[in-house]
Structure formats: C-alpha cells, structure tokens
Amino acid sequence: MFEVLTEKLTGVLQRLSGRGRISEDNVREAMRQVRTALLEADVNLQVVRKFCDDVAEKALGSEVIKSLHPGQVMIKIVHDELVELMGPVDSRIYYVSPPPTIIMVAGLQGSGKTTACGKLGRYVISQGKRPVLVACDLQRPAAVEQLRIVAEQARAGFFKVDGETNPVRVAREGVNWAEDNEHDVVIIDTAGRLHIDDQMMAQAEDIARAVKPHQMYLVCDAMTGQDAVNSAGQFNQRLELDGVILTKFDSDARGGAALSVKAVTGKPIKFLTVGEKLDALEEFHPDRMAGRILGMGDVVTLVEKAQAQLDQAQAAKLQEKMTKGRLTLDDFLGQMKQLQKVGPLKEILKMMPGAAGQMDAMQIEGGEMTQMEGVIRSMTPAERADPAIVEASRRRRIARGSGTEPQEVSGLIKSFNMASGMMKQMAGMGTRDRMKFAQQMGQAGLGGGMPKFKVKQRSKRLSKKERAKRKKRRR
C-alpha cells in the first residue's frame, strides 16, 4: 500500500534534508514534485491543489528556511497536513444500551461488501460482543449462501428468511430475532449493483427507515481509486453515511482513494481491509497512515497486532532479557517465528521505523525465515549466546553449514545487533517515550537510517561452476 507515493515523497524529502539550508525556491520546487507524486497516486485534483498550497504556505510562513534542521521541520509539516487531510477519525464502534447495536453495510457489487460484513463480525467478537449477520442481499445469486459461509467462518450468528423477496421485511425480522436470541450487534448486508441506480438507493433507504441503524458504512474498493470516492459521494447524498470501509487496501499501491475520501465526501474512512482472512480488518488512524506514507513506519499498529498474537508469558521473559541486555540469537529466532503469526515478514518490516524506504534493498521473497533459521542453527550454543565471537573463520563454517554466503551471516548478525540495541533502548521506556523514539527513528530513516542488507532466496541446486567456486574458496 502507498508503495509508489511513499517512494516519491521520501525521495523529495530526502533531497530537502540533504541541504544545509532551504530557500523559497527549494520549497516551491519540492511542492511541484509532491503535486506530481499525488496526482500519479490518483489523488483528487482539488485535494492535491489544496494540500500543496497549505504545505507551501506553512513552510514559507514558518521557520523552515531559518531552521538548523529544515528537512525535519518540512517532514513534520507534510506529516501534519496528511493527518489533517485524512482525519480526524474516531474508528470505534459505539454500542447502544439496551442492545442490539444495528450496523448497516452498503456498497457496489465486487467491492468486497459481504466479506467486509464477516470481518466486522469478527472485529466485534474480539470486543466481547455477539453479532448476527442478516442476509438482505436478495438480488445477487448465492449472496445469502456466501454470507452464511462467511458468518460461520467468523463464528458469528446468521439470519435469513427462506422464500422472502422483500429485504425490508428480512431486516426488520432479523433485528427482532437478534433481540430474542441475545445478540447485541446486528450487521445488515444489503444488495449491491454494478453501478449506482435509483432502485438500489431506494431499497437501501427503505431498509434504513425500517430499522434505523446506529451506524451506516459504505464499502469501497480501494483499487478503483477516484471511482470509489465518487461512489462514496453519491451514496452519502442519499443515505447519510457514518464512514467508509476501504477494502483491498493491501493491493492498492497508489492510495489515492484513502487520501481523497474524507476531503471530497466529508465522511471518514473507519476501517481498512488488508488481506483475505477475516481478521484482516484494521481501524483507520490518520496519524499512523501518515507515518506509513512518509516511510516512518507504524509501530503502534505493529505492537497491537503483536499483542493479539504473541505469547504473553514469552513476551514477559523477553522484556526482562531486553532490559538486562542479554538477548541471544535463540531469543531473536523465537521472536521472529512468533512474528510470523502477525503477518509476512516483508509487511512487518514496512511498519518498522525507517524500513519502508529501504524495502527495495531487501530482497525478501518468502524463504527468508527458513534461511535465517538455517544460519542460526549452524552456530554453536556459544555463538548463538554471544554473536560477537563470530569472526571470519567461524562465519565461513556457518555459511557452509547453512548453504549461504559469509556476508549473509554477517548481515544477519548486524541485523540482530541493531534490533537488540533498539529493543534494549525501548525496554525501559513508557508508551509515550516509545512513540517519541519510534518517530525519531522514522525521521532518521528518511535520511537513510536503517542499513541496507539483503536476504536472498536459497538456491535448491548449485550449478557445476558455482560448486567449483565454493570448493576453491574453502581451500
């Protein structure tokens, strides 16, 4: 997500950061490049103009030109304007008392609406609620059956009325059934169309009048860019939306919809779907998203995901070791395996401060964990406990044992040393200090903070020529 925009914006800001002083001409040239980057990311033209004008005005009216660190001040201005553009957003669902809380979900066909209902169901279950998914999409073939399967996978309740053709009756009966069966959240899946039409809108309005939903969300496909923004605007004119769920966000390298929806429609993005699994639903936080766009990572979201997946007892032991500075490669490997539960390593690294701008230098293709484990398992217990003793001859032996190159062993140890150093620094900090530290690391990353290292995919079979070369080196 945001790969293209992140690459271009960080490039522009890096060039500014590399200057000892910044002039008015430098700022205006930078904003021309930012404008081009935003337009290429499919951001709405009016939004681009206002954003660039606001940044330029604040940059020229502030102490950027006189500052000793003008690049960092400029980064902060751009970051704050991105937050302003996408927010403020309160992504929480407020549950009513007495229950049930009624959530109505609308959207076009193909936007991922039915799956989004299942993800919302899983989300409210994680908050201790008992949701029921109500099948009011009676237009699309097999839509009711699809919602039933999604509800079963999400471990949520499911309601349908066999033979009924009026979605308003189904919605009303679904709410009554939820009250009688002690379900405290009702999620209503409405019919979609290939395009917006009066019949679709009238049906959605009738359902809304009948059940009076407490929250009304529109599901939009992030990959459709400005079409998603236009759809949100038209829906909002008829339905008075509370927010937008942006789907397929992990597949959208541009991100124009995310940057345009709030400014164009006045309605915030509430949630993002970032994968196919039913737990791949994220609350939308403008400040965290701005950090991702600028290559500063998103440590808070990473920590939240980790807390939901990782073993808390192991985490407590690790915290104690980090505080004492006794982290070993065995600990490192164990934590990397735990992180696999959070998501793919490449996606995790993108959330680390400074790493997002260096992803091109990291050739991570899927087998990096196997290779890392092979290198660590090829070490002796003493080497795993104290990597500092791994000198040239030991590196060659470890490389032979793991089928890698000595420089890859060095790269792993270097990464471990950097990670353990950061962990030790953060171990004794409070939450606020950790956030400040993460932001500083992110800003350093824009100047090339994290080292570039390669994680190569291990070859299954070496050529005869390569085997001869390795044999010669061993001699």
Secondary structure: number of strands: 8
Structural class: alpha/beta
Largest sheet: 8 strands, mixed
What integer value in Å does the Rg equal?
Answer: 26 Å
What share of the residues does DSSP label as strand, in percent? Answer: 5-15%
CATH class category of the largest domain: Alpha Beta
CATH architecture of the largest domain, by name, is 3-Layer(aba) Sandwich
> Low-confidence parts lasting 5 or more residues at pLDDT below 50?
357-363, 441-460
Distance between the termini: 47 Å
CATH superfamily of the largest domain: P-loop containing nucleotide triphosphate hydrolases
Describe this structure in words.
The chain has 475 residues and is an alpha/beta fold. The chain has three domains: 3-86, SRP54, nucleotide-binding domain (Four Helix Bundle (Hemerythrin (Met), subunit A), Up-down Bundle), CATH 1.20.120; 101-293, 3-Layer(aba) Sandwich (Rossmann fold); 299-446, 434 Repressor (Amino-terminal Domain), CATH 1.10.260.30. The chain is 56% helix and 9% strand. The protein contains 21 helices and eight strands. It has helices at residues 3-17, 24-40, 45-61, 70-86, 113-125, 143-154, 167-180, 198-211, 226-239, 256-265, 286-293, 299-309, 312-324, 329-339, 345-350, 368-377, 381-385, 392-402, 406-427, 431-446, 464-474, and strands at residues 101-107, 131-136, 157-159, 185-190, 215-221, 243-247, 269-273, 281-283. The chain has an eight-stranded mixed beta sheet, sandwiched between helices. Strand 5, helix 9 and strand 6 (243-247) form a beta-alpha-beta unit. Helix 1 (3-17) runs antiparallel to helix 4 and helix 13 (312-324) crosses helix 19 (406-427). The longest helix has 22 residues, at 406-427. The two termini are 47 Å apart. The model is unreliable at 357-363 and 441-460 (pLDDT under 50).
